[in-house]
């Protein structure tokens, strides 16, 4: 085997074993997440619409976002400060939140018409606007798919809306979500956010 090939294989294997060893420790993650409790809640159910819930998120997504905050790829001054963690800490914290259960939300009677508008887009997209069905990636029940398609079910509608608007403006960079959000109107974003939050 030539030297270059050997270095590449060794690097890939080191990456695998680091991931496998660190991904499993949810109990360690709970201890490491103590500094997150004030904003994201003791079990990852946040009690403030300004802070996303993290409970029940798909494994791998939280670690990925912490990496993006740390590097500045996803811009948020508070979270950039909080994300100065090692890859092992990120993986443990990820495992802790993934093992928690998000509290379901319901929709008020007077918001049902708006939610139905969101439902149509979420389940079928629209051909005229070339918007794909959200459920293709976020799942029919909004539970996401490991590791990069996040859960949206049970999330604060205000947070979902803020993120779709950030993808639309480009403030949050998203190779997939950027072009999708760009084609959504603010009214469609409002309806979708309400609908997704109430999925279970
Ligand atoms: C002072 C409040 C505060 C603290 C403490 C805090 N966060 Fe956050 N967190 C936020 C805010 C605000 C956002 C939304 C950022 C945005 O709009 O992009 C956020 C977003 C996140 C996200 C993205 C969620 C998603 O669905 O994309 C993750 C993951 C996260 N925080 C993890 C953590 C972890 C882990 C800790 C502890 C190490 C922590 N946060 C501590 C306020 C906080
Ligand atoms: C082809 C797959 C795909 C489709 C279709 C898709 N998404 Fe996404 N979505 C993603 C990915 C990947 C991310 C994570 C982006 C990142 O890592 O920053 C995401 C992130 C999001 C987030 C942010 C969640 C959070 O916790 O921060 C929201 C909200 C969202 N999508 C809503 C939608 C809506 C509404 C639709 C339909 C109009 C949709 N998505 C269609 C792949 C998709």
Note down, in words, how this protein is organized.
The chain has helices at 3-23, 26-32, 37-40, 61-71, 77-82, 87-98, 112-124, 135-138, 157-169, 177-183, 186-198. It is mainly α. The longest helix has 21 residues, at 3-23. One heme C (HEC) is lined by residues 33, 35-36, 38-40, 50-52, 54, 62, 65-66, 76, 78-79, 82, 93, 150, 162.
Topology:
Blueprint: H1 3-23, H2 26-32, H3 37-40, H4 61-71, H5 77-82, H6 87-98, H7 112-124, H8 135-138, H9 157-169, H10 177-183, H11 186-198
Helix pairs in contact: 1-6, 2-6, 4-6, 7-11, 9-10, 9-11
Bound molecules: heme C (2 copies).
Keyword list:
200 residues, mainly alpha, Cytochrome Bc1 Complex, Chain D, domain 2, 2 domains, 11 helices, 56% helix, 0% strand, disordered N terminus, binds heme C
Summarize the structure.
Helix content is 56%, strand content 0%. The protein is mainly alpha-helical.
Q: Please tell me the overall pLDDT.
A: 91
| CATH secondary-structure class of the largest domain | Mainly Alpha
Element order, helices and strands? Answer: HHHHHHHHHHH
Total number of β-strand segments? 0
Q: Taking Cα atoms only, what radius of gyration do you get, to the nearest Å?
A: 18 Å
CATH homologous superfamily identity of the largest domain: Cytochrome c-like domain
Q: State the secondary-structure class.
A: mainly alpha
CATH topology of the largest domain: Cytochrome Bc1 Complex, Chain D, domain 2
